[in-house]
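Subject: design request, 350 residues
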């Protein structure tokens, strides 16, 4: 993908290899062999995620430079203590990060068609939070809350949850007073019914019952509605309204299925209600992505969990400042380990 962009822009390329996965030398040689005419664009090599004494890796650096005729610009160490946003849902940090100081364990339901897992990235910066993936073999006994993430195929994923019996575990968790939050397709899954007949894909099943945790039903008409939204919390139990910025991306309409006194809208965007929550806000969901990137709301929700464990509430973390600090730390490491002068003078040619 990136090579295509480089070709269109007619710019040089730096090839980066992940040492932690193993086979980095063979990967570089093989990739260069397969690039054909694009090989000439590769002007430098970088080894990433190296653990150990880099001096012991020098023979490998010398060998690959001789083998390929391309300069190794540097070897980046494994930086487990620096947290930055993931590039996409395939490389989310929380799947591999262990917080030894965690007091809150939040389970994220593993879905075959899960998407937008970067919605949860900011939990990495919370000092007392550990996210863990939930699959069919997971025990719910030690979970303090559950998040059902978004999915690009809610009907298929709901079917998977039923067949794997994860659905039953989630329902039991909610009946026992458990805290659950759904995002996007996860919101739909928490509802009574999902009707995707207006957006049929390859004649696959397009209707199913949901978990029935929130009294809503989703009907998909195939009309896309997406973009950044600005709004606020409107739930009566959130005494001080919380400003919300997020992103909507959906082809459907999720509406209240039957009026229940216990549930009311959670947010409002441009005068339109979005999401629902019960009076304790232990059961809540929204169609809006990046909801937990709103510092005040994320902390409000985490404090619900903390209170349920009789833990003291914590103050809101300024995520922007935390991220800037981490990006500065990363920049320092790059300067220490990569030959930036060579990159500027011989590759970018400034």
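Subject: RE: design request

Done. Sequence follows.
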């Amino acid at each position: 993908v990136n090579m295509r962009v480089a070709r269109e822009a007619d710019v040089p390329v730096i090839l980066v290899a992940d040492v932690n996965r193993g086979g980095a030398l063979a990967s570089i040689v093989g990739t260069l062999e397969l690039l054909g005419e694009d090989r000439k664009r590769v002007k430098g090599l970088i080894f990433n995620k190296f653990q150990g004494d880099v001096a012991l890796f020098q023979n490998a650096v010398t060998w690959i430079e001789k083998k390929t005729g391309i300069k190794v610009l540097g070897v980046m160490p494994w930086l487990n203590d620096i947290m930055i946003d993931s590039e996409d849902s395939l490389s989310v940090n929380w799947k591999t990060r262990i917080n030894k100081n965690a007091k809150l364990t939040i389970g994220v339901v593993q879905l075959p068609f899960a998407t937008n897992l970067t919605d949860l990235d900011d939990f990495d910066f919370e000092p007392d939070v550990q996210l863990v993936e939930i699959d069919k073999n997971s025990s719910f006994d030690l979970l303090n809350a559950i998040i059902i993430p978004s999915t690009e195929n809610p009907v298929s994923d709901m079917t998977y949850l039923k067949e794997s019996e994860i659905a039953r575990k989630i329902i039991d968790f909610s009946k026992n007073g458990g805290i659950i939050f759904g995002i996007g397709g996860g919101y739909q899954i928490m509802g009574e019914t999902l009707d995707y007949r207006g957006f049929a894909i390859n004649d696959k099943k397009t209707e199913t019952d949901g978990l029935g945790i929130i009294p809503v039903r989703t009907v998909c008409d195939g009309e896309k509605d997406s973009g950044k939204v600005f709004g606020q919390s409107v739930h009566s139990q959130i005494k001080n309204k919380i400003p919300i910025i997020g992103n909507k991306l959906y082809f459907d309409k999720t509406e209240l299925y039957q009026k229940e006194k216990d549930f009311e809208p959670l947010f409002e965007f441009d005068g339109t209600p979005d999401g629902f929550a019960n009076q304790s806000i232990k059961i809540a969901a929204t169609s809006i992505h990046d909801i937990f990137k709103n510092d005040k709301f994320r902390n409000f929700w985490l404090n619900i969990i903390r209170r349920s464990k009789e833990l003291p509430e914590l103050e809101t973390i300024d995520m922007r400042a935390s991220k800037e600090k981490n990006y500065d730390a990363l920049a320092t490491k790059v300067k220490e380990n990569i030959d930036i002068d060579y990159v500027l003078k011989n590759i970018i040619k400034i």
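The first strand starts at residue 13 and ends at 18.
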